[in-house]
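Intended use. Records like the one below are meant for learning the mapping from a protein sequence to its folded structure. Do not use them to infer anything beyond what is encoded.
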Amino acid sequence: MSTPKLLNFKENLSHHTRLAKAMCGVIAHQTKEEKASANEQTRQKMAQILVEVAAQQRAARLDDARF
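Structure written out for the chain above:
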């Protein structure tokens, strides 16, 4: 006599979603130049985000120092 298995809502987290599978397909069919371009765009985007975060942190430190 076995008890029925309760469904775990996190059970499918290890599986790719449709969007993730589509992205994997796009990435797999990119040329070297397209991959290099995408990597450079990602690098520039991350660099910009880091600059913005650093500026916010600097402003917060200055604001804290005033009080």
